């Protein structure tokens, strides 16, 4: 039996308050969609079957190089993080898995698994960390990890990744996500070719350690923490990695890791076409890798990405099997609230994309009717799919109004008492 | 009596087909908004009172430096352009004015005015052109116009602007829009300071020629046609111009004329605060000054801009009186269709912004509740305001479905017969 | 015997005036380099052996979508273009080949070859054009060419490319360069996957028509003339193309075709490593694809690119055999002058890169001495290699001061008389 | 008597080794410049008179939000920071002042002054810090400081700035630099107009506390730590601030705080023209506010900025009196080395700009000879001015080879023993 953090009574009570309005709005929307030839219940069922993972680190307050302003009741370890993740899933019913970060989330795997079972949470892709130095680590990653000039450092990073796989095996994970901060801050500091050779060699050893039913996801990032070059700078390099490694290697798309103006939905289409899309790290950004809440800055872009995903699903693109995770930094909000809101935005984009009339769109495309092709997408995007998402949530036992219910529950105040602050609210680096 | 291009019968017939569905959707939305404390009819009335100007050049097919692919039935002169503008206004009922371009639209002012009256069209801001050389022009603008190193060229450009004011006076226009292509392609080519001094001096002479009830709008542009520097490169320089010229000078915001990532809505807020916002040239872009259809790439940004405008109106910001115009380049669509679709997108953003609960938003802002402040905006944006805009259009005699009605009318085929192509479909420059 | 456009006497006279100073500067630099362990004459010989192609269209004046301001004495056809190219090569002795553009440069191949022989010019890669419509072309490329939804248009574009190969065979060219303007202006207009499938299918047919000793170069471009998506948008897609086509297919790097901030030298390194670098289209840019003169905006970036090329040459990278061409748009200068200046800037970057002490650099890289690795590059870059380039030019019969000699020759005034202007100075599109 | 950290004997010995080569190179360059009509000694004197301040925080190792990798021998407080600054100035003789940061550098002002006198260091602009929370601070800056919605937080930030002025008065500083991290991460979080009103009101109080002979410098930044909007986002807003505050208020230009592609040298020209340029925070960047070493990524841009400064000086622009400081984050190098290298790059750009033949440049500009105007700048930039800078350094008692001499001195090893590490090498935030 799962034991969830928010009281069932409170949830029921809050849902009761919103049920009539939801029923009304859902009926009106259903009628409208029916006129457009769309069965609202079929859409709702699809939305209900969609889920996105929460990264364990997401429930802590983030920061910048200038400062970190701690929030109240921050989780002090992986077990408390799981509690917070359980709140998110209980209320949104769309985030049933958690993605762990080695070494931060190290704990007795059996205890972790038991805690997950108790909260109704599973474990998603495992994340290694070679972009910072762990306590008592023998060699530093200051100048790189899997691509370091020194073979001993590369070996240490390889072993860390293999250890991460081992932990994941116990927890039932089926994928390893590798992101490295390797790169350079000065022209000349790094030999691009040698560094990439080192990286590929090291990753081949990690790849060889993957169980048969695992996949490895590599992640590109244009810059930061390295500021002149990064070893895996874009999807082109990421594709080369996946190709060199083999059929279990795939390319992750983090929405914030691209150059300005880049057409991300097109990258998604290319990776699907060449059967190398691993999945997503969802977030949003305005300037760089801002790690803002998914859908908060450019919701139409999120929709266009889902338009590619739904299209691939619709035409049964070979090898299409993306993994979804939120990856944000919450500096000014309660992370639980931000993650719930983001999960909803992701479902919104998915629901909107499901409304696109694909045969009609294809016909406009084939006849070069650019305006009507665009209108076809816009009609789906401008539809208020809120009732569909709420209905899907409700049907699965979640909240009609997750944020309102969460606030009403007093969860944050409760954990703030239970989790005394570690002290210093500011740990910026200047 | 106006004499409109689309048959009233056809319009009525097409509207009839959509009326029941619209009534239904409007009623449902009204009920939902009522629950949110919003009177839908008040919103509809505000939307109905909003209008945006069409630039005369917008109804022609655009092109790039690589090629121009002519469309069928392109207008061959200002009178045919006015016919096309009349279609847009007849069906959308939100574009009652046209903005002319001197010297391209030169014609007998009385005949122009009569034509406008016949079509129910007025004349908006007048645009001068010193970024290309007109036939038989004495001196070339190859190296600049109002900022040219040679005083004779500057004088010619000044006189052209004054002539543009003179034409506008007859037509009932009340504003002059000045955009120059002046700048440089090489570091060193231009002395930034001297060029700007020349520009300011020249503009002071133009300013002195403005009638008392006129305003002058200057427009900044980061780059293109000049590719290393432009004389009026950003809103900072544009503000300095307006400040130097005087109380009748204001700064135009063209959505495509900014550096990547720039927060345009914040620029709008600053210009409102310092009482120097002239208004807008609406379009959208993904990369540079792409001149794509308004709202087609980043509709949330358009909404955020309107959020500032509605906020300024709401708090009765001193001197707030923006002029609205669409300014796009239609390369792959029928310009009439694109302009109708864009006018609708602009109204959509306006309607969405009207739904924002401003006292609630202010309270969230004052209590640093970032998440709920954002949700307040998002709730307005995700509302499907289509029924409001359609109802406003219908109430004023327009079409429920402007594009469908236009296509049904056969207008394009008709004018294609009447307006034989001038020949060469391709006039790219390589 | 070649018959060159600039008088040998004038050239000799101009060189005489500069010889003493050059000898002095060369000797001083030689002494300094000797102290740094570098043999100046070895560098000079390498510089003397470097060449870069001129595109036939480069000697005409460029323009923008706003206007084109014609220059005096513009060449009216391919034979006059070759005359202008001969001036550039005569004075710089580094541009012995011309790259033609089909269909603009269509002419009797035998006559072209004879003219080239007479001027001492060879023919480089052939360029097809499917981004604009040629006169009397059956089907339009308005909505694409090799990726068009209609198979008939794709077939026409294939045939045009095959025709281009045929012309090149006669002229002694060994490569076809394919750049398409295909893409979309609206989300939804194009199905990314289908369009790319069409493109790949079409290119496979073109590829099959390549003679055994030919290569095909494909060129990516982030945007323009398409403004929402382009079919070959970045090096990732370009790499996929080269991989799909086969061993004769390679990826061109045009310096202006990337997203803002992108690290181009790293892309160059990747393409070298995976043996798919075709070569370069040199130019410079500040904002978008500005097509400014090579080295005029960011000369350090040009140096960093050559640093990769010299490094690849130094370590004898397998399959390393890049083709070099200048590809610029000259809107405000005499194209002959700009092309001469650009050829010199390219040689400058090459000469600077040759000065990098590679074993020392590698040692700093291996020991993570980021500062000294950077200083090693900077020392090469800050060296004034002007005397080396001038000496290399002089040794091959060129001018110490190409631009001064060109101006002294009166060539432009002479051809201005011979080539009456076609009339309209302005052909902008608005 | 000053007591400098590097032994005079070692310095003399190292200089001796390089003197002959320097004399040779200086003489050759002198001869070349003489041919170009330039007196090398006059240039050297100007270079020798130029100085740039070091920020106290610059001598510590920087980090990113992901990690900080401590370097050996990091200074543990302001007195050790001053020691490190003294090394930089002793060897480069171009950084005689230090800019302090309140509250980090709080100490007995008399002791600070004595320490500065002992090391031959003065105190430059004072920096306040309201972008992170100091220990035991009453109210948090999590949601802003001078623009905070709560008047009590604003008051606290005002008082902190006034305190910073008070400290500076004792130390002989004459300027206060104000940079705030205020802004928002979500659309809607902040009301742009109210926030800016708050900021202006607060700054007016700070301004009123300035001594008569002080100036206040405000600094704009496009983004980070706030990621959707910042209160002082660009030079346009910064100019408005300086204008609103009064004649003692000026605008700082940090090279990394602009949108991609922005023409920074033009902003410098505008601020000079309108008499509001405060000065610079020098650094370089490739992607965002990367805070890389000055001149390491785009040295030509640095030159173009100095071209504006030298031009303003040359024409005696009214009110022209810029303050210069380096502001970088050193993550992978020894900060002392990076700061010495950066000071040299800044002097290099200044020396190159001094070589521009300004009357000749003006003539090319006036005759629209874009190519020769550009060549005039490029000729100055491609000159190897290394000997001039080294000679200027040597003449003032510094090192011909500052980095080589520093390494030979064993300073870092010495202080590493004296300054035991505080422990944790990694303090990243995820």
From TrEMBL, chains A, B, C, D:
Q: Could you list this entry's UniProt keywords, alphabetically sorted.
A: Isomerase, Manganese, Metal-binding
Matching entries from SUPFAM superfamilies are given as: Xylose isomerase-like
User: What InterPro entries does the annotation carry?
Assistant: L-rhamnose_isomerase, L_rhamnose_iso, Xyl_isomerase-like_sf
Q: Is the keyword Metal-binding assigned to this protein?
A: yes
One GO MF term, please? metal ion binding
Q: Which regions form coiled coils?
A: none
What domain of life?
A: Bacteria
Name the PANTHER family on file.
L-RHAMNOSE ISOMERASE
Q: What is this protein called?
A: L-rhamnose isomerase / sugar isomerase
């Amino acid at each position: 039996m799962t034991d969830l953090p928010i009281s069932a009574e409170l949830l029921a009570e809050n849902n009761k308050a919103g049920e009539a309005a939801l029923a009304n709005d859902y009926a009106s929307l259903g009628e409208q969609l029916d006129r457009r030839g769309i069965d609202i219940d079929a859409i709702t069922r699809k939305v209900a079957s969609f889920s996105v993972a929460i990264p364990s680190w997401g429930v802590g307050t983030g920061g910048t190089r200038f400062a970190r302003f701690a929030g109240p009741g921050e989780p002090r370890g992986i077990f408390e993080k799981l509690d917070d993740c359980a709140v998110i899933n209980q209320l949104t019913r769309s985030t049933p898995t958690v993605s762990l970060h080695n070494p931060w989330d190290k704990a007795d795997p059996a205890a972790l698994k038991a805690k997950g079972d108790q909260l109704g949470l599973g474990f998603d892709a495992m994340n290694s960390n070679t972009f910072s130095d762990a306590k008592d680590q023998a060699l530093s990653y200051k100048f790189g990890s899997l691509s370091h000039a020194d073979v001993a450092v590369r070996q240490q990073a390889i072993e860390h990744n293999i250890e991460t796989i081992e932990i994941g095996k116990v927890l039932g994970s089926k994928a390893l996500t590798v992101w490295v901060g390797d790169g350079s801050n000065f022209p000349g500091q790094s030999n691009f070719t040698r560094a990439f050779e080192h990286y590929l060699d090291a990753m081949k050893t990690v790849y060889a350690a993957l169980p048969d039913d695992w996949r490895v996801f590599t992640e590109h990032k244009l810059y930061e923490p390295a500021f002149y070059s990064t070893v895996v700078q874009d999807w082109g390099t990421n594709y080369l990695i996946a190709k060199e490694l083999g059929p279990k290697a795939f390319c992750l798309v983090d929405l914030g890791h691209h150059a300005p103006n880049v057409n991300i939905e097109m990258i998604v289409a290319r990776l699907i076409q060449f059967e190398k899309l691993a999945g997503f790290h969802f977030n949003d950004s305005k300037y760089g890798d801002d790690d803002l809440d998914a859908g908060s800055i450019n919701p139409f872009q999120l929709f266009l990405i889902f338009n590619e995903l739904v299209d691939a699903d619709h035409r049964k693109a070979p090898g299409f099997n993306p993994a979804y995770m939120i990856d944000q930094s919450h500096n000014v909000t309660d992370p639980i609230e931000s993650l719930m809101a983001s999960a909803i935005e992701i479902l919104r984009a998915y629901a909107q994309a499901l409304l696109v009339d694909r045969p009609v769109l294809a016909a406009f495309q084939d006849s070069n009717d650019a305006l009507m092709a665009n209108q076809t997408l816009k009609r789906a995007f401008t539809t208020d799919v809120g009732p569909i998402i709420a209905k899907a949530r409700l049907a699965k036992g979640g909240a009609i109004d997750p944020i309102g219910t969460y606030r009403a529950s007093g969860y944050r105040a409760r954990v703030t008492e239970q989790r005394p602050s570690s002290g210093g609210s500011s740990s910026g680096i200047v």
